[in-house]
Amino acid sequence: MNYTFLLTKNDYICYSILSLFTQQTNLVLNKDALAQELSLTTYQLNKYFESINTDLALIAGKTPCYIDEPNKGQWQAHGLNTYCLQKAALLYLNRSPLFTALEYQFFYENLYTKKEYVAANFMSSSVFYRSLDSLEAILKKHGFYQASSLYAGKEFTIRLHLFQLYYTMYNSVSDPFEALNPLINDLIEAIQAGLPDQLDPTQETKLSTFLRIWLLRQLDKHPISHHQRLQVEPDERNQAMLSRLQTLLADQLTLSNDEFNYLYSFLIAQGYLGSEQMHALSAGIPAIDELTNQFLTEIRSSNVLLATNFVNDQLLEDSLLSIHFQFTTFYIEPTTFINPEQVQFFAELYPAFDVAVSHNITKLQRREDLRLTQKMAVNLYFSYMFALINSIPPELMRDQVHICVDFSQGTLYTNYVIQSLDAFNHAHIIIDPHLTPETDIYISDFHSPKVDRTQVIWQDPPTPVDWSNLADLILDTKRDKLPQLFPEQKGSDVDDTQ
User: Fold this and answer.
1) Is there a contact between 443 and 406 (Cβ–Cβ < 8 Å)?
2) What does pTM read for this prediction?
3) What pLDDT shows up at residue 498?
4) Cα(403)–Cα(462) distance, rounded to whole angstroms?
5) Which residues face 75 on adjacent strands?
6) Cα 437 to Cα 441: distance, rounded to the nearest angstrom
7) Radius of gyration for the alpha carbons in the chain, expressed in angstroms and rounded
8) Domains of the chain: total
9) Residue 115 belongs to some domain of the structure
């Protein structure tokens, strides 16, 4: 869910302009094209130019960040990067009346009167009441209350979408609800004591944001339903964690078993407690096994593999379990690995995997209960791809590329090139020790009339251009093999997902 709908009109346009800058490698925008794309007059553009520079001055750190017009009709951005864009988005969000109304409705409505909240936020009463009155309709329009996973409980959905909002907009910039920092740090320390591994920085940030939403919803008297399909079996580890958290929160609230069950389920869904716990909890959600079995069947029946009995089934199944567990429960709408343009790269590098993954996602798109958006489909494509790449060795792939390396300099130079080819091990390359009927590419320092395969001649140590040309040749070879393996295949269609 894209939460920029909460921004004011002017701030949304400023954010859109900054986003367009970051999409250009040279950070240059043409004013006429910009005016046409955003339907703005020259006068309006000039006003936004001044507003943007004022905003950038507020968020710039040691490195200046601003835009200017070095050439007539062209705007140039300086010091602008993804981090600056995130800081600008957060600046715009925090001064949005709709966002202030949202925080009141979901975190403070049972703690403060509207009058008290307006006074505390130094806000115009009329602006606040107008924003509060329009908020519900705007949230419904943008699907805020629509479940983004098969877990359709109302409070579960509200918390998940609030988490997505704060995790997306605050991540790496600052902490939301900073007054909670000391308590959140203590909670994370108590949770960490019950985890098998140390939390990585990204995991800790995610958990920190989740805990803030979890805590504030409880304090504002919005409990999670006790009719949860995710039911954690009590054991020594989780009961010890529950006791530690109850002690820490005793002054704020009484931590119920339902709320702890919800938190512990999140830890399991994120993989913080290992695959064994995930397997146990997933038993209550048949859709997880259904989706996993469907994908495995697709892999085994799509002519992708030479054999299926050597696949690391457990590694692949654990990866699929993690994907489908999150997908059907705590599905956090991704902000990375969602670019459909990058799908083509993987489709060319792993054409056989692309066939199976694309076919499976097409089946999921036909299911109305999953409500697969474009971003979800693209992210799922990458998740499936990485699961297959990490689980299936090149020796099992039908789209292998056989390369024979044979240099007249002898084994030292030959072995050097073979070792260097490890950089291409993700392309399902098989090194042939000798020329064989299966060899696709022959690499040497001299052309040989006895070799009827594609020859690559390197009489000097290969340059970056040589390696790049070899990579292109490998892709061409894989592409040429594809029609023989999959006559019906026309390429990946994930990027066309609507």
Assistant:
1) yes
2) 0.83
3) 40
4) 16
5) 29
6) 11
7) 27
8) 4
9) no
